[in-house]
Design goal:
The protein is an alpha+beta fold. The protein has two domains: about 80 residues, ATPase, nucleotide binding domain (Nucleotidyltransferase, domain 5, 2-Layer Sandwich), CATH 3.30.420.40; about 90 residues, Dna Ligase, domain 1 (2-Layer Sandwich). Helix content is about 25%, strand content about 45%. The chain is built from three helices and twelve strands, in the order ββββββαβββαβββα. The strands form four sheets. The chain has a four-stranded mixed beta sheet with strand order 4-3-2-8. Strand 3 and strand 4 form a beta hairpin. The longest helix is centred in the middle third of the chain and has 19 residues. InterPro entries: ATPase_NBD, Cell_div_FtsA, FtsA/MreB, SHS2_FtsA. It comes from Rodentibacter pneumotropicus. Keywords: Cell cycle, Cell division, Cell membrane, Membrane. This is Cell division protein FtsA. One of its GO terms (cellular component) is cytoplasmic side of plasma membrane.
């Protein structure tokens, strides 16, 4: 009987114009990923990175996932999807907040990240990911985790990834 993929396992899925690939791996204690299974099948229903036949794309994804599940002897419950194409945009932004009680709190970190991500995107484009890159507290730069540091101003530098809303809506249907 197939085991359900545990939290240490990761599943990557790439839906390309020529093929769909699913990879199941487990993260070892030293951080190395051990590949447990791979599934691949020709991609149907995608042309130049755009979905042209949703049912065909779903079928291709299901076949690749089933093949990876069979090889890894597990049941895949979720995936991390790799996406590329002209519909993807990325940019760097920053946002800041004043530090209220002299030490940086989680709420202030969240507010700085929110401020960095509230930019005007073109019509029909929506934000997919806000990826924190680094923080600055006053003149201290290149901080990875500012929680508990003292200062008066917190600045968050982020990498934003956005895509066309119609593409994102089609992706969610899958």
């Amino acid at each position: 009987m197939a085991k359900v993929v545990e939290t240490k396992a990761i599943v990557g899925l790439e839906v390309g114009t020529s093929k769909v690939v699913a990879v199941v791996g487990e993260v070892l204690p030293d951080g190395v990923v051990n590949v447990l299974g791979v599934g691949s099948c020709p991609s149907k229903g995608i042309d130049s990175g755009s979905i042209t036949d949703l049912d065909a794309v779903v079928n291709s994804i299901q076949r690749a996932i089933e093949s990876a599940e069979s090889m890894a002897d597990c049941q895949i419950m979720s995936v991390t999807l790799a996406i590329t194409g002209e519909h993807i945009q990325s940019l760097n932004e920053s946002g800041f907040v004043p530090i209220g009680e002299s030490e940086v709190t989680q709420d202030e970190i969240d507010s700085a990240l929110h401020n960095a991500s509230t930019i005007k995107l073109p019509e029909g484009v929506s934000l997919l990911h806000v990826i924190p890159q680094e923080y600055a507290v006053d003149r201290q730069l290149n901080i990875k985790n500012p929680l508990g540091l003292q200062g008066v101003r917190l600045n968050a530098h982020v990498h934003l990834i956005a895509c066309h809303q119609d593409w994102q809506n089609n992706l969610k249907k899958q």
